[in-house]
Amino acid sequence: MFRIALRSGCEAQFGSRLFVRTVSTKASKDDPLSILSSITGKTKFEHITNDSHSLFSFLDDSKTKQKASLRARDFARAMPLPAKISGRTTLIRKSSNFNKSISMFDRLVRANNIRDLWYDQMFYIKPNKRRLNKRIKNKKKRFDAGISNLLSIVKDAVRKGY
Asked: Biological process GO terms, please (predicted)?
């Protein structure tokens, strides 16, 4: 079983096919999920907080124990994602077509407008300039819709023989 995932908007700029991760039944030592699953044991920080005379005894022990006992998947879900649409995945089963799954992933990238989002988030734009760009974009969209409407009327008139 494979999974194609969109990790961040800037990586989608250079290609919509970012990475493929193999999910197997055996957990290898290099697998990130198996590394994260080792968090369920005691950590160094938990040893420090268990000592009541410790410098860090003001920290709440229950929160530390709760964070230390998270499973790898929960830990990964709690991590902040750097881009707006990060974390979207497309599942590829062994029985399905690999090219179809990649095209579904490309469609997901295009539908969420990842490339434009990446470019917009790359630079700081002053608020007035951002509002002006938004106004220009909306007016351009309306103008293009009006032009396409006029062209459809002309095509219909030509078809009818006017």
From this structure: translation
pTM: 0.36
Tally of CB atoms within 10 A around 87: 13
Encode pLDDT of 108-140 as tens digits: 888 888 888 888 888 888 999 999 999 999 999
Please enumerate in sequence order all residues whose Cβ is within 8 A of that of 69, keeping only pairs 6 or more positions apart, or say none.
40
Bridge partners, 5 (sequence order)? 19, 89
Q: Indicate the angle between helix axes 98-111 and 114-122, nearest 10 degrees.
A: 50
pLDDT value, residue 12: 37
Residue type at 85 in one-letter notation: I
What residues contact 114, with CB distance under 8 A and at least 6 apart?
6, 9, 12, 13, 16, 85
Instruction: Report residue 99 as tokens.
Output: 């090219």
Looking up tokens 């000592």 gives 51
Q: Is 138 helix (H, G, I), strand (E, B) or coil?
A: helix
Note every long-range contact of 19-28, with CB atoms under 8 Å and residues 24 or more positions apart, other chains counting.
Answer: 20/92
Distance, in Å, from the CA atom of 73 to the CA atom of 79, rounded to the nearest integer, reads: 10
